Amino acid sequence: MTSSILLVDDEAKIRRALGAALRDEGYEVAEAASGLEARQLLGCQPFDMLVVDNRMPDMTGLDLIRELSASVAEVDRPQILMMTAYATVDSAIEAMKLGAFDYLQKPFDVDELLVVVRRALEHQRLRTQHRYLLSEQRDAFDQYGIVGRSARMQEVIRMAELVAESRSTVLISGETGTGKELVARAIHDRSGQRDMPLIKVNCAAIPDTLLESELFGHRRGAFTGATTNKKGRFELANGGTIFLDEIGTMSLGLQAKLLRVLQEREFEPLGAERTLRVDVRVIAATNRDLKRLMADGAFAEDLYYRLNVIPIEIPPLRERREDIPVLVDHFVRKHAKRAGKRIEAIDQEARLMLQTYDWPGNVRELENTIERAVVLTTDTTLTTHTVSVPGADPGSSSSWDGLPSANLRRNVEWAEQETIRRALEVSGGVKKAAAELIGISQRALSHYLSKHRIE
Ligand SMILES: Nc1ncnc2c1ncn2[C@@H]1O[C@H](COP(=O)(O)OP(=O)(O)OP(=O)(O)O)[C@@H](O)[C@H]1O
Ligand SMILES: [Mg+2]
């Protein structure tokens, strides 16, 4: 985004010279010939920066800065650069005390001005980013702890809301680390049974022989080692929700028993004569493709249809990259707070890396990456020194010399940008020539220009 600068000086000659130099740098420049005129402009539109002369007839630069600092909150104020003659250095120092970024003593070099302006605006950008990171209620996307602004995550959240009120069985599918458990909890917490238990069973973590008694309980003496009566998780979840994680790993025998619970809401604990009736909402989750398992005969078809009453599919993170920036900010806040550290920003290079990595471990992997960076950093800005993903840091290896990384996607993006940029350079900015030079159509060139935001 172009930065906007308000240039205030009573001398037309100076305005013209400095204005031209700043515009040449790509800034948007408005000019005011007096403090009063500047005040009026500041009232109508926001500026990123104010470059102001001190000695002017009606109102001095310092007066203007005083007024600004009294009436506008610091975060909303433009960066201020004061131009001053030797005799008024005292005013300049006062301006700095009021929050001005810097001052330049006349006469100065235009290049000097440009350097200070660039630095001030970079500072401004970090300040805005910092504010963005720290504002807690900033994202409307954070619903029930589920962060995501992509249309697909919004759809997941909407479905979760819809099913929460019902007692229907829900099947949540998605790759590892996509947030299946998080969504299951959100559904329970939004349901009328939120005060009743949510019981979790990880079917993959419990050996099949024990899983049956875990789920349904047993009576003393039901099998060797069953020395006491034990309540099963279904019984413990009565009135609430049972979350059956990794349902795809369950044996066919247990699947049949589960099917009966779903159909008739009853079962017998191991070794018991009596049948138990329960009122339990079932939420199942899987990172395996149940249809494929079904085709292989490893998952019972009737159970599948019983479970799949309301399917919620959580897409992998690489298919919803627009969620990455909001997740990153969310996790930076969370872990900075936990570690008692102040993190103000994440630099461009680190962001690009996070944005382009494929995240096979999805949101969990992203969270771990951020947590590690927050713990390791000694700086208030996260950079690629602390933010790292597999394959992105070729380190000292010379095999990647001349490439920005060891990640294919990043390198391809980089090559596109470089090729376009150099073609434009060689062809003196003539698009037709540039397109011909690198063997693409003018339309394709336009596409790349906007994709990479090349002016
Ligand atoms: N959209 C999201 N917003 C915020 N945090 C998320 C989101 N998705 C996942 N997480 C976080 O990522 C981690 C992994 O999520 P979760 O345990 O729910 O994944 P899962 O799909 O159950 O993974 P697995 O298949 O490995 O069990 C958790 O710490 C969770 O809080
Ligand atoms: Mg899980």
Q: What report would you give on this structure?
A:
This protein has 18 helices and 16 strands. It is 46% helix and 13% strand. The protein is of the alpha/beta class. It has 4 domains: 4-134, Response regulator (Rossmann fold); 151-315, 3-Layer(aba) Sandwich (Rossmann fold), CATH 3.40.50.300; 318-382, Helicase, Ruva Protein, domain 3; 398-451, Arc Repressor Mutant, subunit A, CATH 1.10.10. α6 runs parallel beside α7 and α10 crosses α12. A 5-stranded parallel beta sheet has the order 2-1-3-4-5, sandwiched between helices. β3, α3 (61-71) and β4 form a beta-alpha-beta unit. The site of adenosine-5'-triphosphate (ATP) has 16 residues, from α7 and α15.
Radius of gyration: 31 Å
Ligands in the model, by name, code or SMILES, are: adenosine-5'-triphosphate, magnesium ion
Low-confidence stretches: 134-142, 394-398
CATH topology of the largest domain: Rossmann fold
Number of helices: 18
Largest sheet strand order = 2-1-3-4-5
- At the first level of CATH, the class of the largest domain is Alpha Beta
CATH architecture verdict of the largest domain: 3-Layer(aba) Sandwich
Number of spatially distinct domains: 4
Q: Fraction of residues in helices?
A: 40-55%
Distance between the termini: 11 Å
Overall SS class: alpha/beta
Largest sheet: 5 strands, parallel
Q: Quote the average pLDDT.
A: 88
Proportion of β residues? Answer: 5-15%
Shape: elongated
Fourth CATH level, the homologous superfamily of the largest domain: P-loop containing nucleotide triphosphate hydrolases
Total beta-strand segments: 16
